[in-house]
Input
Amino acid sequence: MEYLSNYTVMESSDLNEVEAMVAGFSTPFKLDVKGPRDGFNARVNMAKVHDLDFVHSTFGNPRIDWYSEGDNEDNYFFFIPTEGGGEITHQNKQWEFSQKTGVIRDMGREASAFQKNFHSFVMTLSKERLTSHARALVGPHCAMAGATLDPIADLSSPEGGLFTNTLKTIAGALD
Output
């Protein structure tokens, strides 16, 4: 299912155009479409909610392999799949992602993956902003150096299901 369909910022079946667009807000990015390209149709829908970019995206139905160098030191991207899945190699680990398992990717680190029929919400989490919030809760002495987020998000848990359903409800209200 497509979410935020009234907020399309990019739709293309041109591989070079898609790579350039993704690299523009992410990190250098290389895509490889496996098999017939007739199902390749990238779409990025993005609504601005206060200071948060609320994104739902897909590359379409075919298997896509991708690689990213990871040179965006300030951000994490939190992928909450709504369809399809795949496998990612990131932070020296490899695991599957699906509607039951989301991914929190450190954009400052290299990653590669394959995905098929993958549709996902994508939320940008600023490391600086997370540190600021932690210090506001714990105090200015809070040391965040070296802190990392677990790259695997259990969306099948009651909390994960509630979070996913909340995103779908917000997206539905925006459409």
